[in-house]
Amino acid sequence: MLIVMDKDATTEEIQAVVAKIEALGYVAQPIPGGERVAIGILRNPRPVDPALFLDMPGVIQAIPVSKPYKLVSREMKRNDTIITLAGDLEIGRGRFVVMAGPCAVESEKQALTIARLVKEAGARIFRGGAYKPRTSPYSYQGLGKSGLKILAKVREETGLLTVTEAVDQESLKQVAEYADIIQIGARNMQNFSLLRAAGRAAKPVLLKRGMHATLEEWLMAAEYIMAEGNSRVILCERGVRGIGEHARNLLDLATIPAVRRESHLPIVVDPSHAAGRRDLVPPLARAAVAAGADGLLIEVHHEPEKALSDGAQSLYPGQFHRLMEEIRSLRPGGWH
Ligand code: PEP
Ligand code: MN
Predict the structure, then answer these.
(1) CA 181 from chain center: how many Å?
(2) pTM of the entire structure?
(3) What is the pLDDT of residue 65?
(4) Which residues form the DAHP synthase ferredoxin-like domain (predicted)?
């Protein structure tokens, strides 16, 4: 249930609604944005009777929220959310951001070289895993904390913001300290204790879609984060398990308009993990832009043949540069 207040409602009237919700044993969640205050009712095991609120001063509407996800839903918040990432960099509602870099941080020299190249091409955020969730325990697992320190150095030297994955609660604490955006990977999309911990962090969260997740499961994962108080959630479509062998995953671009309908949160697309091979990345990236994505997450490596992970899907810097030019022509507004 969403209680919508009159635009002239006083602080006392708003407080009275909050107090009534709490007295019923539920949680009151003010919803930011818009010209009027709205208050969401959460943790109610059964539907709430609208009549309990409709005769209170300052209340103009009580809207039942029919979806299982509440805070992420468009029913709760009508306007697209704009998330401030850090400084003046925003994403959502037409503010388009490109995040690019290697799959994994391999060394300071590697990270800085790639960061300078992607920055020159127009990326504002540097990606690079310090903790890598790998299918095989024998594959490269990342540099861990020293990788995070390299990311901090990249930020300092280039001014790029950083996004990197947290794979468990321990790494989450460190990622939240060193990086600008916490990435939750596809394999952890339903790691509910990790989602809750990300919801208590003070940094925005990039939530990848699980490789078998329905749209509803994905939005419920975002709800876990928001329910803990972190409203800065960016959804990231990265493809689901498909049947073809021509690509690593099946990029589901239908999620862009479908998410827009269901949720106010920004959605970005990762064509690299969807494709698994670099020749497919630029066309998928362009398609994502055309379908209305709020940003892209792209793997780039200056020496992909020597990359310790995901070299085959990493773009050469020249390819990335060309792709950015193409995006510019697709988006007359350019990007941040
Ligand atoms: C990644 O971005 O490096 C990654 C491991 O992605 P995903 O979780 O989508 O597989
Ligand atoms: Mn990767």
Answers:
(1) 9
(2) 0.93
(3) 85
(4) 1-67
